[in-house]
Design brief:
Blueprint lengths: L1 E2 L7 E2 L10 E4 L3 E2 L2 E2 L16 E4 L3 E4 L16 E2 L4 E4 L2 H18 L5 H10 L9 H4 L6 H6 L2 E3 L23 E3 L29
Parallel strand pairs: 3-6
Antiparallel strand pairs: 1-2, 4-5, 7-9, 8-9, 10-11
């Protein structure tokens, strides 16, 4: 994934492909005039991005033995924890989080396809209140729920992208649910719009 800035709509190619999966990072931290969170939509066609959000700011991980990584103490939330661990921020920390969650899903469901694994992660994510779909996609990755939840959905956002004019009288998006368990599951569905209220202005007839 490539970002071109902290403003909305700065997620760019190679995720111009609708089937590409992208991940955001939880938390904001200013760094060299930039921001660790680049919200969608996708530049150009306004496709919903990112698909999911993962931890990526001041995350603790193992230090590489025999290297100089974080050998010098620094101020702030990132830097060495001890001889064996360090805290760092960025996609290098966010990517392993979602990749590890995908590995757990694949281990629990070895017959699942890559698309089904991705759908399991997106369908089970935990949305954060106050953030739009362009900030977090379907929400924060939840590995345990992704493994255990039997129901997945083809898309958590009814993504219409950029609608050009002229166009047909009706545009629809189909969302399908899949239940991998042996028993029926009743879903309590709700529709949330990024614009819950739309005002339609009055237009006077010039002939009156």
């Amino acid at each position: 994934m490539r970002w071109s800035g902290p403003a909305s709509g700065t997620t760019a190619s190679p995720l111009g492909r609708r089937r590409g999966r992208s991940r955001g990072r939880r938390g904001r931290r200013r760094r060299s005039g930039g921001d660790l969170l680049q919200p969608g939509p996708l530049f150009g066609d306004y496709t919903v991005k990112p698909n999911i959000k993962t931890p990526g700011v001041a995350e603790t991980a193992a230090r590489a033995t025999g290297t100089s990584i974080d050998a010098v103490d620094r101020e702030g939330p990132v830097g060495p924890v001890d001889d064996h661990y360090t805290r760092r921020s960025g996609t290098s920390m966010a990517a392993p989080a979602v990749d590890g969650a995908a590995a757990l899903v694949m281990q629990a469901h070895p017959d699942g396809t890559p698309r089904q694994v991705a759908q399991a992660l997106v369908s089970s994510a935990d949305p954060t209140a106050g953030e739009s779909v362009y900030d977090q996609g379907s929400g924060l990755v939840d590995a345990e729920r992704a493994v255990d939840q039997p129901v997945s959905v083809t898309a958590t956002a009814a993504d219409f992208g950029r609608l050009t004019w002229p166009r047909g009288p009706g545009i629809a998006r189909e969302v399908a649910f899949s239940n991998a368990s042996d028993t029926p599951v009743t879903l309590d569905l709700a529709l949330r719009s990024s614009r819950p209220a739309v005002t339609c202005p009055a237009v006077k007839n010039a002939a009156n």
